[in-house]
Amino acid sequence: MLFGKKKSVAGLDVGSSSIKIVELDGKLNSLNLVGLGFENLPDNTIVDGQIMELNVVSEVIQSVCKDHQIHANQVVTGVSGHSVIIKNIVLPPMSAEELEESIDWHAEEHIPYDLSDVSLDYQVTAETPDSTSVLIAACKRERIDNLKQAVQLAGKQPVVIDVDTFALQNCYEVNYQPDDSQVVTLLNIGASTMNVNIVQGTRSLFTRDITVGGSQFTDVLQRNLGLSYAQAEAVKRGVAEATQGIEEKAIEPLMNNVTEMVAMEIQKTFDFYRATTEEQEVVVQKILISGGGSKLAGLSEELSTRLELPVEVLDPFRQIKVDTRKFDPDYLSEIMPEMAVAVGLAVRGVEAR
């Protein structure tokens, strides 16, 4: 029996403020949660997506695996931010061989970096008698090498480098099983980056990474109210004890300013998508939010009001079997929004075995 056992592949999300890891087993329509871990990183360990302290990141990966008994030696991890370029392009009809031969030439028109400096991948998303729709993803090699080095230093083997935006989509597809009539915007609000993905059914129509995130709320509170980082984080999340001695009317306008900026960036993304798409009949029906920034008190309601759309928190464990004797439901509920990308990476890990 041992010889036939598949190796486990965990999903490892190296975020700018924390490390998240998820281990799943089973099949895509019947997944079980085997392990998960979450641990914060010290400030400025990762800046603008670049790992500044390789040893610190590798040590946190090691400790989160040890503390939460994650046994998988292989991981799927992801990249996001300005080093990642994602483009949907429409080409004339062609065979798979013709596309493979010509993809570099087509990519050069859309990728603002020298192709020798990036890792490139592509996927056909739709075909008609008149056209071939292709999604191209590219990331700077130095960014990928930087991430791989941190993972390998921790004693783990990166078997796939995914894009966070598509990991989030994997998580959504497995848990919500959408049909082609459903158009949603997946919004992952990390500490320093916001991933936006407009999805119809299981097809990504438009993506954008925005350098706005939960840390902006914290920074504004720290600067204007003279709070420590920990105090500002607690105030941001609406912890009642943290706001004692601080006037409510001093907090609200500061928070609203950043919320307005987040809403404006999402609106700009919608406007840009509408201006560049030929699929004018496609209308976003709701927004599913995730990431640490989504835990901000009242953010869902505020975004819903400003964007005139239903806004819900994405549940990354909605269709995943969770043993409540092994995983504390309260803890799971607390960290749930942060785990969406890690779950999506773990789903890719199940496929990669």
Q: Beta-sheet strand percentage?
A: 25-35%
Give the CA-CA distance, first to last residue: 17 Å
What structural class do helix, strand and pairing data support?
Answer: alpha/beta
Radius of gyration: 20 Å
Widest sheet: strand ordering: 10-6-1-2-3-16
Shape: globular
Q: What is the helix fraction of residues, given as a range?
A: 25-40%
Q: Please outline the major beta sheet.
A: 6 strands, mixed
Count every beta strand, where a strand is a DSSP E run of 2 or more residues.
16
Model regions low in confidence, pLDDT < 50 over at least 5 residues: 1-5
pLDDT averaged over residues: 90
Helix count equals 10
Concise summary:
This protein has about 350 residues and is α/β, with parallel strands linked by helices. The chain is about 40% helix and about 30% strand.
Give a topology summary.
Layout: E1 9-14, E2 18-27, E3 30-40, E4 46-47, E5 50-51, H1 54-67, E6 74-79, E7 84-91, H2 96-110, E8 118-127, E9 132-140, H3 141-153, E10 157-163, H4 164-176, E11 183-189, E12 194-200, E13 203-210, H5 214-225, H6 229-236, H7 248-276, E14 286-290, H8 299-307, E15 311-313, E16 320-321, H9 329-335, H10 340-352
Parallel strand pairs: 1-6, 3-16, 6-10, 11-14, 14-15
Antiparallel strand pairs: 1-2, 2-3, 4-5, 7-9, 8-9, 11-12, 12-13
Helix pairs in contact: 1-3, 4-10, 5-6, 5-7, 7-8
